[in-house]
């Protein structure tokens, strides 16, 4: 076969296409296009369009009869259709933005910069034939969040029990292999392409727990990082490194890593300068300090602001930033001491430092106060630091949401977090805070954006569970526009991933995927730990139920179930006082067991099993009902998926992978149901009102 092979074509051939199968390019590839722009990203777009045209019979380069014009807003000699659009729009849409119009039968996309050209191109891919329908006036698109980053918890070498990718459920790292740089750089490029098509624009390439081997990425293994950056750059993905705070000792031979020591500051300045010489567009550092055994400024009696600012000073001359994580807590707690509350920790450590961080610091805050549980209240830190640039961190990798063995579409969870209004109904949202448009305006010159722990590995389907690809896609889309509806994002993903032929996605497949995925987070929540209590997982690997697994440990994650009731009293009146970390009205809503939303009740309160929820059910009956119903639901979705196979609507290997995972999900859901229900029957002595079987 003498088909022209272009880079985009190779990428599609060798890896699972995910949301970029060839069919997604047919609308563009079958038309005549003109592209006006220069630079690396413009070249990427040109190559993408040429590649699609080679496959679908279109052509590039013809201005006069072009049906599609892609151009930079600032381009001097625009074809007539684009010139007309430029004259009609008031302003340049910004670096990553673009204006799209269809007029006189020509689709015109004017981008503010090369990145906008790239995002505009992928927007057209999403629209497909709809981009070439009826005329419409100019519509401007630009990302709400400037910073949209995936963190990889990848180790260069396999590291003890965590394996190569900490909390990774999709094989090994795509960046590193056998202690070295991957021998499959095209996979890195293909990943960058998928990310760009979702809207993400940055990647951190190693685990935040920075071990000795990984620490060296900063110095003598910098060439490896540069190689990864080279692969990602054509798709506009910037590269960041997780660094060990003790690097001056580990790598520089200094006696200390004290952030106020001039020798330490000098070491970071020189090291960072070298990084920027090698990777001129290097994004910056990610730091986990004084957390779960990682080094940090506390060892020198310094604050986290002093630690972060030192790194900011080294990065700022090059436009880099440090993402400093707020996940700091005592992981050696005495479980007998009920006054210590892990939920309080991030606020207690960081809120007093508001206003002390340098402009080049972004404080990266997990969405909940504990740790990526399926249900937590939004972290109060996000409402407590108006003078600090804040990023919201979520987990695409499903550490606590089924480890890519269970279907759990997470966009509804993230959407809920981003839409939460910490100051009440008329106040700003969490998305506003992350975008830098919340109270306090734009500290440090812009929001910290949205960060997620990636769920990708070298697995054939990228994400282990093929349906977990939707989470990666949805992350990029919500970072671009946090107001998007999760169900609409799912439709986009379905259209891109499963369209075959001119008729689009068959209704039966679309309905089945919605039935399986739309409520899958809620279903997962309902067959696992109840009412926001969290952490009833097996210690260590965090998979499957172990109700008391963490109850008498040092980790600070307890449920306090006894024969009378369950939950953690975090009230001001009688508990740990955590509710006071929220602004009004949430401080009083959470303080009251009667006002507190049901789904968070036992996160905030220790209540009797007979406590009546807003639904009218008692707590104990709710536990039984949700566990029976959600497990039943998993069985239903498993048979729905089977029906899809019977009529041949998806590739058989993808079908088989999902089917195998659904079997495990059904087994695991039953295990959760039976252990949770039996545990609470035995603790409470209260039978199920419906007399169902509990062991
Ligand atoms: C990378 C949780 C995970 C850890 C992870 C940590 C973090 O505790 O279980 O594996 O460490 O979060 O976010 O730093």
TrEMBL record:
Keywords from the named record: Glycosidase, Hydrolase
Family matches, as InterPro entries: A-glucoronidase_C_sf, GH, Glyco_hydro_67_C, Glyco_hydro_67_cat, Hex-like_dom2
One GO molecular-function entry: alpha-glucuronidase activity
E.C. number(s) listed in UniProt: 3.2.1.139
One Pfam family cited in the UniProt record for this chain: Glyco_hydro_67C
Keyword Amino-acid biosynthesis: no
Ranges where the Glycosyl hydrolase family 67 C-terminal domain occurs: 463-692
Protein name: Alpha-glucuronidase
Organism expressing this protein natively: Catenulispora acidiphila (strain DSM 44928 / JCM 14897 / NBRC 102108 / NRRL B-24433 / ID139908)
Lineage, uppermost ranks: Bacteria, Bacillati, Actinomycetota, Actinomycetes, Catenulisporales
